[in-house]
Amino acid sequence: MNSQLFSRSTFLVSLFFTTLIFMEFPASTLCASDWYSNCSTTDMFSCGEITNVGYPFWGAARPEACGNPQLKLTCEKNDTTIEILDVWYRVLEMNTRTKTLTIAREDYVNGICSPNFVNSSILESKVLDNTTLLQNLTLVYGCREDELPGKDYQRFTCPKYGLGYLVLADEGLNPCTHSVRLLIPSDSITDVNNLSQVELTIKAGYDVKWNDSEACSACTRSNGVCGFNRTSNGPTCYCPNQSYGSKTCRSSPPPPPRVLPMPSLAAQAPLITKSENASTNATSTVPILAAQPSQSPSENQSTPGTVINFLAPLPQFRSI
Q: Mean pLDDT throughout 191-211?
């Protein structure tokens, strides 16, 4: 019975301290020293012609904590793609010096007849900005002959959706069955009647720029590696041999705390000297620990005025 009770008590104590450890030190901080190496140049994103991509991007072998959650790159058949506001884009080029990437809608890479009916809205993204002036190109699908507009349009036919048309506007249109609004450079198309030129323009895509925060720049200047803290929803700095969560890295790890030696008991106690060999006038000093404090007055009141010398010789008794 006692052994079972002891075993159960030991288990509860172990469970308590284990829970306390994980409450005080989350898993992300326990492994913080590894993020510096995981997010460094050894784990850059590479796929096909897109190589050595770092912060603020992540994906494939590059861990999620190394980049912004909205900028995940995916690699499939040596093609790099990224999802922005529910639309998949193919990354055609990336320039880390100018912090720009060229993107084109993945569903329009092979033509205009396999669309996902979601409008492009890069301008509403909080992590990417367009670098050139863009305009809307609207494609309408599934129309009847009498639903086609009379002028300023280019008609086309798709096996799955039938008749359709496209215009450089998005107002006053007959939506027919479906419609999609794309973004293209404003100076790329002046005449939508050239369908081949329109398709080439859509495939060529356009440039967008990602935002590099000053906090990340300061981290890089201090020899740190940028990452993303999902708790604070912002960039963080990973440093060698230091826990993350700071803005910059120290030049070197702080020195260990200085530990002073504890003085011995004999060194702390006062010394009392005792003279010996008085007959030869030679004295030797012998360290003796000081006596402990006397008892409280209440304890000494039982024998007032009485002094007991424990070092005196015992009295001699004579036998009768």
A: 90
Separation CA 16–CA 9 (nearest Å): 11
In sequence order, the 6+-apart residues with CB closer than 8 A to the CB of 226 are 39, 54, 55, 56, 216, 219, 220, 235, 236, 237, 238
115: Cβ contacts below 8 Å, ≥ 6 apart: 107, 108, 139, 141, 178, 180
pLDDT given for residue 84 in this prediction: 92
Give CA torsion, residues 20, 24, 25, 29, to 10 deg: 170
Could you give phi then psi for residue 36, rounded to 5 degrees? -60, -45
Q: Residues 87, 116: contact at Cβ < 8 Å?
A: yes
Rounded to two decimals, what is the model's pTM?
0.66
Contact (CB, 8 A) for 63 and 38: yes
Task: Decide if pLDDT at 298 tops 50.
Answer: no
Give the CA diameter of the chain: 151
Q: What is d(CA 242, CA 236) in angstroms, rounded to the nearest whole number?
A: 13
- What distance in Å separates the CA atoms of residue 54 and residue 59, rounded to the nearest whole number? 10
Is 164:140 a contact under the CB 8 Å cutoff?
yes
| Cβ(149)–Cβ(165) below 8 Å | yes
Question: Residue 76 has which token pair?
Answer: 């499939």
Q: Which of 100, 76, 99 is nearest to 90 (CA)?
A: 76
For residue range 237-260, what is the model confidence (pLDDT) as tens digits? 888 876 655 678 876 555 556 666
DSSP characters over 209-229: EE---HHHHHHHHTT-EEEEE
Of 285, 265, 266, the C-alpha closest to 275 is 285
**Angle at CA 306, nearest 5°, toward 304 and 310?**
140
